[in-house]
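Checklist before submission:
- one chain only
- standard amino acids only
- sequence pasted in full

Submission:
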Amino acid sequence: KQWYQRRVAITAGGSDAAALVTKATTDGSKYIVNGSKAFISGAGVTDLLVVMLRTGGKGPKGVSALIIDTATPGISYGQKEKKIGWNNQPTCVVNFDDVEVPCENLLGAEGQGFNLAMHGLNGGRINIASCSLGAAQQCLEDVLHYTNDRKAFNQPLNANQHVQFKLAEMATELTTARLIVRQAAKSLDSKEPNAVALCAMCKLYATERLFKVCDDALQLHGGYGYLKSYPVQQFWRDSRVHRILEGTSEVMHMLVARDLLKHL
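Returned file contents:
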């Protein structure tokens, strides 16, 4: 079984995916690929790459997608990035130096790469929101046990009304986020016209609010939450990047606002 890494993150454009500069020029029956890609999750451990690159002019219509075997000469990798989270997945720069790729490895037609990437991002945003759900759920379960077992002022922490209110807020945020994620997934599966906006909403809400749940769980652990022997710190570190992956929270605001304004 071959594994591939979907490639959207770029060196020069950041959130502006249509501004990518990695190029592919045709040479008979093959493309010649040159450029580099930064912040690539899973780089160096996959057998295939799906690479978004420029085959035409400026803008999204000049972007195409190629499937590239990682054993192809001319592919090299930068050093593994040292991240504060997601450390089980390597991240580094991928370089392409006169990499020859058969024209038959083109996904769809030339100029369709940007649309393919954007379509994949909608599902990816649900995936990242779901990762936040998992982290926040475990943090809530951990802090429920911790505040019940931990004693302060001759009583469990969860006997304090402030702690009870905080736990109630965390559970409410978690339940609300789960509902919006499910609604977005249903909308995307059903190809509803508002699916893009709902996917953006679910990622924005879940990643922002549920990171706060993880942060609150760490706070309720006190000093113990800052120790690596307690897993809450790992969920906190891992979930922070969810507000950046698959489109930043700022881009999600833009997508939701664009959907609202188009109906005026």
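Reviewer check: The beta strands are 4-6, 23-27, 30-41, 48-54, 63-69, 75-77, 91-102, 106-107, 151-152, 155-156.
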